[in-house]
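Handout, section 3.2

Students often ask what a structure token actually looks like in practice. Rather than define it abstractly, here is a full record for Aldo/keto reductase family oxidoreductase. The first block is the sequence as you would receive it.
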Amino acid sequence: MYKNIFTKFTSSSSIQLSNKVKQCFSLKGHTIDIQSEHNLIQRKSDFEQLYKVKYTDKLVGYATAEGTKKYSELKKDSVDPTNFSTPFKSDLTLSSIGFGSYQGTPDKEDDMKMFNALIDSVNSGGINVIDTALNFRYQKSERSIGAALRYLKNQNKITRDQYFLASKGGFLVDDADQGIPSTVLINNLIQKKLITEEDIIGACHCMNPNYLSQNIDQSLDNLGVETLDLYYLQNASEVQMPLIGEDKFFEKLSLVFELFEKKIQENKIRNYGLATWLAFRSRQDEKNIHLNLQKVVKLAEKVGGKNHGLRYIQLPVNVMMPESFSEKWQNYENEKGEVQEQFLLKVARELQVNIITSSPLMQGAMINCPLPKDVFQCVNQGAKHLQFVRSIPSPAIISTLIGQKSNRNVKKNLEVIVYPKLSEDKFWEFLIPSKREQEIEETVNIS
């Protein structure tokens, strides 16, 4: 007999939710029955009417101080106030949990799931940060989000100024809806001499400003908005720097920042940043992998001045990826000219750069890594892991992104929004090795 110490979820017939969590899902169009994929039929006609390959009736505006503050108060009786914070160099009120849209297959079923999941997430009163990318599900994630934003406006009076919308570009991307491969766009740009074949790195990525400009316009069309609150250069350091070297990478990055500053002036984006996977989690000696945040910020200052638009970076943070606060892998030069080895979160705070974290569950793997109930109040393991990441004691961390498509997972994960973040003492106490009593909930016979 083998004692399985992993916490076992309650069965599908008895998902546990507190009364506060249930209150978060009481707006029009919601149900408390977590067992059902409740709106796949109810909202089907809405989805089919709203989903477009290109939205011509674009939503005007962007996230504002007044709008995001209003959103934070929609469910103030049930959503804990620590769920919201204000980023550096900003007056916005943003949620500590954000909606991610990476996972899924490029088909109508997952379009519907993402459409419904975003509506449920925003209507909870606890999520007003929405993250996507042009290449996610071959452009279908952006279009599904565009449909959901229109539903939220029409049915729930959630206006454009209440949520913070981010997208990304840089990868070559096919169009699943129209059946157009990325090579068609690339060949067209090459024929027009807007880019060259040498601009395509690793057969998958391009930092040429003309290509990125097209990416931005395509995302605006897919989402049906006039302005993005944040636009990231996506995984450029991971794809390009190992192949072209750091010096050439920063030459290209300078041109990208020039483009992004121009797009801010054109009101197509409000801020820009770098979405990464390894770059800010690697050691200084990992040549052509590691990125120094201060060097990146200095480049932005050179291009855009002290009021440059580089305000955010994105990287994965979870129990198994704690490097941003556990390893001093960033060199930082202080005002005295002294170079110190520092934690990324410390450097981000000094430089006033906001961090959006990704992959809190490592695409579901963390569900099998139970967190102790004597520290984390949440019932569901996913919510406990979200509580861990959002409680990291740093003002630089603004939001952690969670991908969720089913009604069941939305409600399980968003259990976290009714609880306060862990105190700093409680967080560090949890990380100190100690003997804890494990929950033994299942016996498995492996003979």
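Discussion prompt for tutorial groups: The chain has one domain: 2-444. How would you have guessed this from the sequence alone?
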